[in-house]
Every structure is written in structure tokens, then in C-alpha cells.
């Protein structure tokens, strides 16, 4: 597995803690899905959550993109 770095820009004047948490969580899950070529089971294992939890989070964030390495 390749090492990846996650960078998030935070604007304290315009973003609440909840918005920052959502942004970081979504970017983390997108990175895990990209790293696993879209394999939700493997991505969930990396994130330390169940596949059901991953699917619920993706639905909550309205993520429909298929993640693959390019």
C-alpha cells in the first residue's frame, strides 16, 4: 500500500467544527477507497469501521463516485 498524505484547509472564520470533521472524514474515506481501487470491504478495514458504516457514511455524504487508481 502506498503512503498518502491528507491535507485539509481550515477556515476558522467560516467553518464550524462539525463542517471540518465532515470534510476530513469524507476526504479520508475517499483516500481509502482510492487506495483500495474502490473495494469497500478493504477501505472499511483501513478505516476501522464496518462495511455497513462505510456505506451509510457514503450515502450521508451523497458519494456515488467509483474510486479507482489512475
TrEMBL record:
Gene3D superfamilies according to UniProt: Homeodomain-like
SUPFAM superfamilies from the UniProt entry: Homeodomain-like
Domain DNA binding HTH: start-end pairs: 23-61
Keywords: DNA-binding
Keyword ATP-binding among record annotations: no
InterPro entries: Homeodomain-like_sf, HTH_Fis
GO function terms (MF aspect): sequence-specific DNA binding
Presence of the UniProt keyword DNA-binding in the record: yes
A Pfam family matched in the record: HTH_8
Name by which UniProt lists this protein: Global DNA-binding transcriptional dual regulator Fis
Organism: Pelagimonas varians
Amino acid at each position: 500500500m502506498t503512503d498518502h498524505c491528507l491535507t485539509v484547509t481550515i477556515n476558522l472564520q467560516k467553518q464550524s467544527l462539525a463542517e471540518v470533521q465532515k470534510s476530513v472524514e469524507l476526504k479520508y474515506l475517499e483516500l481509502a477507497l482510492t487506495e483500495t481501487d474502490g473495494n469497500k470491504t478493504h477501505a472499511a478495514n483501513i478505516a476501522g469501521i464496518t462495511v455497513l458504516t462505510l456505506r451509510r457514511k457514503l450515502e450521508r455524504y451523497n458519494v456515488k463516485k467509483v474510486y479507482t487508481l489512475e
